[in-house]
Amino acid sequence: MSTASPSPAAPYRIPSSLALAARQFPRHRLALVGFVCLLAICLAAALAPWVAPYDPVQIKLGSKLKPPSWEHWLGTDHFGRDVFSRLIWGGRTSLSVGALVVAFAFTIGVPLGLASGYFGGRVDNLLMRLVDAFLTFPPLLLAVALVGLLGPDIQNVMLAIGLVQAPILARVVRGSTLAVREDVYVTAARALGARPTRIVLSHILRNVMSPIVVQLTVVFAAAVIAEASLSFLGFGTQPPQPSWGRDMSEARRFLADAPWMFMAPTGIIMLCVLSINFLGDGLRDALDPRAWRTRRRLADGEG
Amino acid sequence: MPLLSVRNLTTRFATDRGVVRAVSGVSFDLEEGEVLGLVGESGSGKSVTALSIMRLVPEPPGRVTADAIEFDGLDLMRLSEAEAREIRGARMAMVFQDPMRSLNPVLTIGRQTTEVLRRHQKLDGKAARRRAIELLEMVGIPMAERRLGAYPHQFSGGMRQRVMIAMALSCNPRLLIADEATTALDVTIQAQIIDLVKRLQRDRGTAVIWISHDLGVVAGLCDRVNVMYAGTVVESGPIRRLFHRPGHGYTVGLMGSTPRVDGAAAHRLTPIEGLPPNLIDPITLCPFLPRCRVAVAACHERPPAPRQFAAGHWAACFADLVR
Ligand SMILES: Nc1ncnc2c1ncn2[C@@H]1O[C@H](COP(=O)(O)OP(=O)(O)O)[C@@H](O)[C@H]1O
Ligand SMILES: [Mg+2]
After folding, report:
1. Chain A interface includes B21 (CB < 8 A)
2. What share of residues in chain B are helix, strand, coil (percent, to 5)?
3. Do A300 and B150 touch (CB under 8 A)?
4. Spatial distance between the Cα atoms of A288 and A174, rounded to a whole number of angstroms
5. Are B284 and B303 a contacting pair, CB within 8 Å?
6. How far is the CA of B85 from the centre of ligand 2 (A)?
7. Which of A41, A156, B68, B262 is the most exposed place for a label (fewest CB within 10 A)?
8. pTM of the entire structure?
């Protein structure tokens, strides 16, 4: 009859949801791979002065456009700079833009979306009108306009991209909240006197985490690419500072002669996005107890 | 003074196709510790009546009006939403139809059962846990302590409904509303849950409004029954009397479509023909008239007023069914 034999001595503690989720996460192979990749990339960027074999901005015209070799693992660019070193240093820019934009979009977009979706009414109307108005502009154009307004430095680039991404996230969160709000357990919680903040934070937020995580991986990718575009237009990272997006854009001119120049930053951006996607998948499953492999369920008539 | 007194409760919903009168002028009293059944076909306004009393009707699109809803010395219609929240879960509680969906799938049973206790009784984590274990044991969940870490999907429907009942009763409410609480369960589990509610109700003196579309389920549990049709109470009376001397054509029809539970000889099951009226159109005559098999001439002339047959037994019907 019993699913687990009770051990009389040890008192049983409720494991926290977070602890349970953390236990689930490593079971997700791809997520683990994604996590390790991302960690390696972040570490390399953080430790760039020690990891990068060359100075990323030092021009050596004598050795320009060299294909990959033992000396230069990923070749050199049109100024003779080591592509691998630029990749490592460029990660500092691109990853921090990605991370900060994700954090910004999350802190602004999630509360807005939750409030809008749960409370509805006039707040919702106003917010969604605003978001709609925002979204009628092409995102890049909007970011360019914002940077133009704020001044072309990297902080403002992040802010601009964040401001473009936050409303998109808010809308995703709002949509999911609208659906979850109608679930019976929300009414059941209300019938027990739960306050709105409690309902939103403990009942709804947990149930809209999956779409949030998925959207945040999209936001990260969009941020890295937007930074590239803005840099290319001369707003973000100024040459000769390395950034994945900038280097990728610049490399297009040498696509025929030096494809490695283009493939290196493109490859690393793809790797990051893919890793984050896997990570997101794993996170999503880890947050959903129904996806866990668990013990047999407690049936009627037991006990 | 009754525990709950509802006067002229009317709940409308604004929809694209017009105003739906889900509940029209419902009045009844519920005594302390009494078990009242609310029966009627699907769509007759039982759930909306319950939600209106709980102040859980979404407004808009809903609109609840009443001359008065008095409960435990309070005028519920005058409470603010914040005041209503203090009452819900503490002095009145509700259990819903679908146990598969009324627990949050991503939160542990422990988290959900302790939430109410922390909220209303201001218990700290440890005390709430201890109390939650007692409550789960009370509703017959084996090894309750170990179940606190489990998630709803690890429980069967019957077990989940037990959890819901434990949560509803955790702050000793004076009124429990069970809305089709056993409808989604199979027959043996249904009987177990009904026994459980009966026992808890007796032990604690909780008043219960038991909602069901099935007169048979109501029969085993209730003292008195309100029969609802098209948003109105068409007949009300003690359960025994209602079974033996139904006073309304609709009640007769309902009994024809209900298996007998009192062990009487096999009974023909004949569902009532036709469909309930559209609640958007105004209803002037008896709402059941188009489907009624006992209608008389007066039914086609004016709406029936409630007629009293005995103490506490009345029906809004012209046909002389009770002699
Ligand atoms: N939120 C709502 N919006 C519009 N109509 C509703 C809403 N809730 C209930 N109704 C209508 O009210 C009527 C009564 O519903 P309900 O009380 O759920 O019936 P019962 O519980 O007796 O099956 C139905 O016709 C239903 O369509
Ligand atoms: Mg119902």
Report:
1. no
2. 35, 25, 40
3. no
4. 20
5. yes
6. 22
7. B262
8. 0.82
Give the mutation candidate from B100, B103, B143 for the A interface (greatest A CB count, under 10 A).
B143
| Counted domains in chain A | 1
ipTM summary value: 0.88
Which tokens sit at A48?
A: 């760039």
B27-72 pLDDT tens trace: 999 999 999 999 999 999 999 999 999 999 988 889 999 999 999 9
Nearest to B88 among A193, A295, A300 (CB): A193
In a domain, A66, yes or no: no
Residues of B in contact with A4 (CB under 8 A): 146
CB contact under 8 Å between B89 and A193, yes or no, is yes
B315 strand-pairing partners: B235, B307
Residues B45, B228: Cα–Cα separation, whole Å: 7
A20 is a domain residue: no
Answer whether A182 touches B (CB < 8 Å). Answer: no
Chain mean position to CA B81? 22
Residues with CB under 5 A from ligand 2 (ion): B 47
As to burial, measured by CB atoms within 10 angstroms (0-12 exposed, 13-18 middle, 19+ buried), residue A47 is: exposed
CATH number at residue A271: 1.10.3720.10
Q: In tens digits, what is the pLDDT along chain B, a chain of 323 residues?
A: 899 999 999 999 999 999 999 999 999 999 999 999 999 999 999 999 999 999 999 888 899 999 999 999 899 999 999 999 999 999 999 999 888 899 998 899 999 999 999 999 888 888 999 999 999 998 889 888 888 988 898 888 888 999 999 999 999 999 999 999 888 888 888 888 888 888 889 998 999 999 998 888 888 889 999 999 999 999 999 998 888 888 898 998 888 765 554 545 444 557 788 888 888 888 888 999 888 888 888 889 889 989 998 888 999 988 877 76
Min Cα separation B81/chain A (Å): 10
Contacts of B153 in chain A (CB under 8 A): 289-290, 294, 297
Give me the helices (H) in A136-258, please: 139-150, 154-181, 184-191, 196-198, 205-207, 209-232, 244-251
Check CB contact under 8 Å for A6 and B85: no
Q: Is residue A215 in some structural domain?
A: yes
Name the residue with tokens 């559209």: B278
Q: Which ligand is nearest to the CA of B63?
A: 1
Tell me, yes or no, if B143 comes closer than 8 A to chain A by beta carbon: yes
Q: Which two tokens stand for residue B234?
A: 């068409």
Q: Is B262 on the interface with A (CB under 8 A)?
A: no
* Measured distance CA(B75)–CA(A258) in Å, rounded: 81
CB-based contact, A10 to chain B, within 8 Å? no
Chain A residues touching residue B155 (CB < 8 angstroms)? 297-298
Distances (CA, A) of A299 to A185, B70, B189: 21, 40, 11
Please report whether residue A296 resides in a domain.
no
Q: Which domain holds residue A257?
A: 91-291
